[in-house]
Amino acid sequence: MGEKRAKYGSKVIKTLSEKLQKEFGKGFSEDTLKNARKFYLTYKERISETVFSLFAVEKSETVFSFFEKEPPFIVSWSHYLQLMRIENETECSFYEIETAKTG
Predict the structure, then answer these.
(1) Quick one: pLDDT at residue 23?
(2) Rounded CA separation 96/19 (Å)
(3) Is the separation of the CB atoms in 31 and 24 below 8 Å?
(4) How far apart, in whole angstroms, are the C-alpha atoms of residue 63 and residue 82?
(5) Spatial contact of 32 and 14, defined as CB atoms under 8 Å apart
(6) Which residue of 5, 18, 51, 84 has the fewest C-beta atoms within 10 A of its own C-beta?
(7) Confidence category of residue 61, pLDDT binned at 50, 70, 90
(8) Rounded Cα gap, residues 6 and 91, in angstroms
């Protein structure tokens, strides 16, 4: 069953990638979509549905003023791509904080 679901998931990502690239151009490769999915699964507790729904509707940077004093994501996307490879949550948090401190 798991193998069948994995094949289905890969096909969905491939199809979605093709459709998005056709409509919007570059930037929607299968790898990019897989990374976006992994990011969501890893950090979903930090993602406020309300804020991102408002952002989608308003399409305004001012929507991010809804965040409290500290934004939920503090380093760049490329840093999160590296951090998502760390399985230990405490270790991952440590490196995220250190990366933010040192720039």
Answers:
(1) 92
(2) 34
(3) no
(4) 28
(5) no
(6) 5
(7) low
(8) 28
> Contact, 58 vs 52, CB < 8 A?
no
- Rounded CA-CA distance 23/53 in Å is 22
pLDDT > 80? residue 38:
yes
49 or 72: whose pLDDT is higher? 72
Work out the percent of the chain whose per-residue pLDDT is above 70: 72
Within 8 A by CB and 6+ apart from 71, the residues are 64
Give the length of the chain: 103
Position with higher pLDDT, 6 vs 79: 79
Runs of H (alpha helix) within 1-103: 2-24, 30-43, 49-58, 77-83, 89-102
- Enter the tokens of residue 2: 């798991």
